[in-house]
Amino acid sequence: MDRAFQRTRILTNHLLLSSPAQTACLTSNDCFNYSPPELSEKYAFDVNEMRKLMDGHDVEERDRLFGLIIQSKLFNPRVRGGKVFVLPDYNQSMEQQREMTWKRIEYLLERGVFKGWMTGEGEDVEMKRFACFEVLGLFDHSISIKLGVHFFLWGGAIQFFGTKHHHDKWLRDTENFKVKGCFSMTELGHGSNVRGIETVTTYDSKTGEFVINTPCESAQKFWIGGAAKHATHTIVFSQLNINGINEGVHALIAQIRDADGNVCPNIRIADCGHKIGLNGVDNGRIWFDNVRVPRENLLNSVADVSPDGKYLSSIKDPDQRFAAFLSPLTAGRVNIAVNAVYQSKVGLSIAIRYALTRRAFSLKPNEPEVLLLDYPSHQRRLLPLLAKIYAMSFGANYLKMLYVKRTPQSNKTIHVVSSSFKATFTWSNMQILQECREACGGQGLKTENRVGHLKAEHDVQSTFEGDNNILMQQVSKALFAEYVMAQKRNKVFKGLGLEHMIKPCPVIPSQLTSTTLRCSQFQMDALCLRERELLNRFVADVSQCLAKGESKEQAFNMSYQVAEDLGKAFSDRAIFLTFIEAEATLAAGSLKDVLGKVRSLYALDCLEDIAYLRYGCLSVENAAAVRKEITKLCSEVRPHALALVSSLGIPDAFLSPIAFNWVDANSWSSVQH
Amino acid sequence: MASSVSSQHDEVLVEEKSFARILTLNRPKQLNALSSQMISRLLELFLANEDDPNVKLVILKGKGRAFCAGGDVAAVVHDIRAGGWRAGANFFMKEFTLNYLMATYSKLQVSILNGIVMGGGNGASMHGRFRVATENSLFAMPETALGLFPDVGASYFLSRLPGFFGEYLCLTGARLDGAEMLACGLATHFVQSAKLPALEAALCAADSSDTVIISSIIGQYSEQPSLKEQSVYNRLDVIDRCFSQKTVEDILSALENEAVNRRDGWISTTIQTLKKASPTSLKISLRSIRAGRLQGVGPCLIREYRMVCHVMRGEFSKDFFEGCRAILLDKDKNPKWEPSKLELITDTTVDIYFSKVKNEDWEDLKLPARSKFNLPPYVIAKL
Fold first, then answer.
1. Which residue of the set B16, B62, B70, B71 is catalytic?
2. Strand partners, A234
3. DSSP string spanning A336-390?
4. Could you tell me how far CA A65 lies from the centroid of its own chain?
5. In the list A3, A103, B17, B145, which could disulfide-bond B204, CB 3.0-4.6 Å?
6. How far apart are CA A179 and CA A399, in angstroms?
7. Which chain B residue is nearest to residue A660, measuring alpha carbons?
């Protein structure tokens, strides 16, 4: 009886509610209207100029590539709220995503996008290639990784480790995708410690062939991008054993599939399966069962084996030989670092645009609700991150230039800077995307809104091409070596920006005024002070361990806490320097003024790092003054928020529905389409 | 019910019919080319109608065999000769302001494109919500043949056509008929011209500013015309392959490659057209449409205004004046372009057209404020 009564009541309610008299209250006037920020926010500077400064190079090339993507059905364009958005359909199966990634690459190939990528030379070619990767990475991480493996790892290995006959034989075919390359370095048992890999290659002088073998399960190649489905060839890293002597890790070319896609004899391939991201990349595992390859397939720029089986190398020191083999990974690392910055740009553009249109809570009853970005707390969450991404953009541009202008002398600097920036940018990216996701509330969880999904897609960046923690340890070790060298030879520090170490120690005023806090010289002093303090401390800690009789390796291991803080201090200071340099190129004007505020916000945000208090670089009172100034700067940057995110240069189609008219994008009429 | 409030001599005729206003471009001898006075008058009328709560719909049409053949460029050139490039800049400033107002109009604009619609005529119609083509429609953006570039917001609306059809229209100035306009999206409807009086009457009787309702009213008079067999719209694959190339030179060589593979009159005509156009115009037009694809309609017009000021100033190239001489004044159809070849125009030169004009008291185009109006979603999406 009760149930029948309840049922009647529900039906009655239902009928009453659906009567016209009841719905009349739902007029549009009572509803939340989307108000486009373009009409209310002012641009105090030329966003095109700012964008040029941020992107740094090849703006026209980028725009053409954006256009190629937006105009093709292959890139899954969807209309939401009257605007077109391009985004892979991540609801497709792993197999479908991989096929789509491949079709998109073929489309770009037909349009000549990769022209000159392998066969061209010079700084311009390399910079243009970086620009294209940045653009493609904005569409989808999978396409950029798939291309990165083929061009930077496979192609790069041939360029760097190979000699003329390798270049002649492989580079053009690589550019045209006649061969599809992959890069077999990582094994199940060995990742960052490449020197420990277990795959073995021997030489058979009777046939003039190398024989590659996977001796045990932990030696199977793992995570090899492209191996599971598409790749026809691979670079194999293995221990080269000549006449019973292990000559260390060397690289060879091996074919793994024929032109029809059938796996070659003595090769076994398995799929790595579904992943938390990058499902458009066919990662695979490879076992080599005494695979024979011709002698010419050894990439012999560093070392060679003569036809009769003698090992020959111009570099006698195995450590140096090994270091030479890792150099092409630098290009990949630069790419990852820069790509991470662009992902953060997407997240911040979306979250800040949303915060400029979404309201929540009124200050008083019957008043309009407050825009999210007008809450000081919301400003504090997003605007320092925006400042950080401005700083990192300049850092990324510097890193790219450093790479393309590389010389044998600059190798060490490139290694240290690329390692520290890669770690810093990719870690920051995860932090920024998480903050942006939360700042978008529930909407941040929808895949179509990108921010949340980007986290999963880019999580891997802190691991591949060098685990971030290990990279940062290497940075600290390099700084340590620099310090020891300078002391031993009683010489000045050169390179790596450590020159400040021999200058008088900067003094932080006991009373920090707003003017001082915004002064770039003070900001630089404060950043140098922390680096100096930490480097001195790190050297002292390591020396103390050594004095106790520990090995050098163990001494570094024991000093990991200071090492981590030091790596961060180095990065922050190096990034800040690139900001100052970019700012110095500008003529006085509104653009420079706004950028100055952004720079101060970045610097002061760095000074909020706990290391300042931990190591006594700032007094508690000074730290409070920094904190207060950040709030003030946030409110001063707030009016420029839209102009600053527009200057990031991400086209609307690469953002998401919540960045624009999210009311219309979610309207009932949009459901019916 | 109908009341006429304008004289036969006015360049824009105004009819008030219930909640609709019919504006007729009335310079039939000049194919309704937009004079400075007409643009001022249209601005005035559109602004007044937007504020007038009794107006729900604005119908724009042309008298005679043209909707509108473009801006009155001959007059602009005359003014520049008399009063310097700023006279020309002022004309375009006003025209682009009108284009922006139409693009962001809070009320519905229905343009009846029963005849020629070219250049500035597209600026006066394509930004509105509804564009009705007929069997008499003839579309083109022929600016590259004139030493100019597709302006009036064309870098916004052409760049959003399917694939690289926009690049094709923008560079070649190719003509489309009504069926093709509908197929590519330049027109929203196709109505036989015989039905236009009935359509107009129905629109005037509508008493509605609802997009769906007005669309369905026009829909009742519309039909789905079939494309002619030789239609360029059936060649989208070739157009996509060639016009997606990076530079004008690359586009030309892609077309030449296609021509090698098959004998096709259309391809050779296209190549010839490109070779006859101003090389400077081609380069700046291509850059403009590609930038425009990624920008809202406001920034597109601001950029085009910069470009047109550089063209008027003629610092780098005076092709605009040469084009007007050869096509509009002397009519020898034999312009001598300078620089004469594509390879003589570097990227850095093209950059200049996109930079601010270095001239005291010159300012970027100031777009009229639109925040007080309750803009419909299809407008918001264009910002």
1. B71
2. A182, A254
3. HHHHHHHHHHHHHHHHHHHHTT-EE--SSTTSPPEEGGGSHHHHHHHHHHHHHHH
4. 20
5. B17
6. 30
7. B381
Residue A210 tokens read as: 């190398």
Burial A289-322 (b: 16+ CB within 10 A, else e): eebbbebbbbbbbbbbbeeeeebebeeeeeeebb
Across residues A360-388, what is the average pLDDT? 96
In which residue are the tokens 């190096």 written? A574
Give the type of residue at A225: G
The answer to the question of whether A463 is labelled as a binding residue is no
Domain boundaries, chain B: 10-380
Cis preceding-peptide flag for B339 (omega within 30 of 0): yes
CATH of B10-380, one of 3.40.50.620, 3.90.226.10, 1.20.1440.230, 3.90.940.20: 3.90.226.10
- Flag whether residue B164 sits within 8 Å of chain A, measured between CB atoms: yes
Stated pTM of the model = 0.94
Q: Are B69 and B32 in contact (CB under 8 A)?
A: yes
Say whether pLDDT at A23 is over 50.
no
pLDDT digits (tens, 9 = 90+) for A601-613: 999 999 999 999 9
Q: Is A590 on the interface with B (CB under 8 A)?
A: no
Distance CA A585, CA A615 (A): 35
Q: Which amino acid is at B182?
A: L
pLDDT at residue A30 is higher than 80: no
Chain B residues within an 8 Å CB radius of A661: 377, 380-381
Chain A residues in contact with B347 by the CB 8 A cut-off are 60
β-pair partners for A80 = A83
* Count of beta carbons in the 10 Å neighbourhood of residue A174: 23
- Reply yes or no on whether the pLDDT at B264 is more than 70: yes
pLDDT tens-digit readout, B115-170:
999 999 999 999 999 999 999 999 999 999 999 999 999 999 999 999 999 999 99
Domains of chain A with CATH codes: 180-316 (2.40.110.10), 325-484+506-654 (1.20.140.10)
Is A49 an interface residue toward B (CB < 8 Å)?
A: no
DSSP state of A431: H
- The CA angle A222-A237-A304, to the nearest 5 degrees, is 170
What is the sign of the dihedral through the CA atoms of B80, B84, B89 and B91?
Answer: negative
Residue with the two structure tokens 């509105």: B128
- Do A134 and A339 form a contact (C-beta atoms < 8 A)? yes
Backbone φ, ψ for residue A482 (5° rounding) = -60, -40
The sign of the CA dihedral A290, A293, A298, A304 is positive
**Which residue type does A95 have?**
E
